[in-house]
């Protein structure tokens, strides 16, 4: 009789256990390691300072140049479209390191008339017909390292820094006007282009969706140093009296984007 009771208890216990819900195992944390590629959309702010020096005509006694050499801002903002690719290595449960390259296009352009540092030129009377200048930035790119901290298994806060490139164009235009004109001869303009190399730093936040999609918001600052360029060197109308000048343009950018990438 005792043996039968024990058998019945064992059968009842098994049935009761079968009716209890099974506790789900915790899902494995997503891995950030691997290659990825994506596209971005945002804006680029160009922060340019233009300074003018070595102004000719070479003024004689009694002339003055009260603002020559002064700097002025020639800033602009434009929409930026780009793409990026890189590789992440999850080096611990909390840290991710990687490398990334990106390329973007924006049409930043701003013209100022007259150029900074020419207001107040005087030769018997204040000079008129002063030259105008413009600064334009087009494509940019960078190659950077990244280091990020996982505030949750699917959310990464990161910093980034490395080398940057920027296509920069400087233009100047001189229009002859009646009177005591700075510009001589026929109207003339010059444009010079250069691919500038500088450095960039920034950071952002990235969120993994479904294990393969990476959504981010990103900001970067870049500095491309100072470009020195002489304009109208061949446009003189007499020894020591022409309309040449030298521009010193310090170029910096601020770039903010949102991006979506696929992790392979």
TrEMBL record:
Top-level lineage group: Bacteria
Output the Gene3D superfamilies linked to this UniProt entry: 2.40.160.20
Which SUPFAM superfamilies has this protein been placed in?
A: OMPA-like
Task: Write out the annotated subcellular location.
Answer: Cell outer membrane
Cite the Outer membrane protein beta-barrel domain residue spans from the record: 20-264
Ordered alphabetically, the record's keywords are: Cell outer membrane, Membrane, Signal
Q: What is this protein called?
A: Porin family protein
